[in-house]
Design brief:
339 residues; alpha/beta; Rossmann fold; Alpha-Beta Plaits; six-stranded mixed β-sheet; four-stranded antiparallel β-sheet
Length: 339
């Protein structure tokens, strides 16, 4: 497991911490000794194949099911001894909407206010505030059954926020949304963290989602964390990164190739390019540039290529991921199924 800045992360107050978290069903081990440290005011993404244990982890941390072993603290409360304290501090948005189709948008929010024991005046105020914040005011009087998929997901998250939680579990919150609605949800999630200091525990099907949102990402496979770090740290774990240099003519290409004779470079004489292995770090890039600059060789173009989270996922879990039909829409980025 890569540590990267983990030491620095550990100096911050933990919203969620777990040591040796385990869960089994009969002979099947679902979670096998997870260790987690998630600082307050950050986004933590948990990735893994189907059956890796992502949803089980969320269910345990949100007090829905008990763990078999391990020590866990959520929002400063011991999960086993103070479950009520944990529940008071968290909100959960699951894979399936909690919206009641028979109620209007406003009624769904006021129902949640009642469940959170807010008085009627405060409940109405909180509902109005969330309707405005999530741009649902015009839909306030409409039955939830008439809302689009993106609006339903916004309402679902708004309902989670009625109780003003400090930690929010988002279990695949954008599954099935079109790219535009997905990006709207991303902006809402970013705002919760940046403006209110909320901590987000995210599981997601989409690797791009984790790349865009998460301060740290963990990859779960067969109940174990096989890697953890920032997106860039995880990408550097995987071979295949390189620096691509393009030159104006063959003599410049030849001169550059001679400078890296002991390195496993890849040369394309037709395209006038060299590919030099790289871990994607600034020191490596600087070293390559120093070599060609000191020799007086001029490169016309430089690009840095690093493995993406798709490569990380496939390499660490050893499993290909089927394409999600819901994501197969025109977009400028790859959004593939990564559960």
């Amino acid at each position: 497991m890569t540590t990267g800045t983990l030491t620095a992360q550990n100096t911050r107050t933990a919203a969620i911490s777990a040591t040796g978290l385990s869960k089994s069903y009969g002979d099947k081990v679902v979670l096998d000794g997870l260790d987690l440290h998630i600082p307050e005011g950050t986004v933590f993404a948990l990735l893994g194949p189907n059956g890796a244990g992502k949803t089980t982890t969320v269910e345990i941390l949100s007090t829905l099911i008990p763990a078999d072993g391990g020590e866990v603290r959520v929002a400063g409360h011991d999960l086993a001894r103070e479950p009520e304290g944990v529940r008071a501090a968290i909100g959960v948005t699951g894979q399936f909407s909690a919206v009641d189709n028979l109620l209007t948008t406003r009624e769904n929010l006021t129902l949640m206010a009642d469940l959170n024991h807010l008085d009627s005046r405060e409940g109405r105020r909180r509902a109005a505030e969330l309707l405005h914040r999530f741009e649902l005011t015009e839909a306030a009087g409409k039955p939830a059954a008439t809302l689009s998929g993106g609006m339903r997901r916004k309402l679902d998250l708004a309902m989670t926020l009625v109780g003003d939680p400090r930690i929010i579990f988002l279990d695949e919150p954008t599954t099935g949304l079109d790219p535009r609605s997905r990006r709207t949800m991303w902006e809402i999630i970013r705002g919760l963290v940046a403006d209110e200091g909320v901590t987000i525990f995210l599981t997601t099907q989409y690797l791009e989602e984790a790349d865009q949102l998460a301060d740290r990402i963990a990859v779960l496979d067969h109940g174990k964390l096989v890697a953890e770090g920032t997106a860039e740290e995880l990408k550097r774990l995987i071979p295949g990164g390189h620096i691509r240099l393009r030159f104006a003519d063959a003599p410049a290409l030849d001169a550059a190739a001679a400078l890296f004779g002991s390195v496993a470079i890849s040369r394309d004489s037709e395209a006038l390019t060299l590919r030099i292995p790289s871990d994607g770090s600034v020191p490596t890039l600087r070293a390559v540039l120093d070599v060609i600059d000191n020799a007086g060789v001029r490169a016309e173009e430089l690009t840095v290529h690093t493995p993406d989270l798709d490569d990380v996922f496939l390499t660490l879990t050893g499993r290909p991921r089927p394409t999600d039909p819901a994501a197969a829409q025109p977009t400028d980025t790859r959004e593939e199924h990564a559960r």
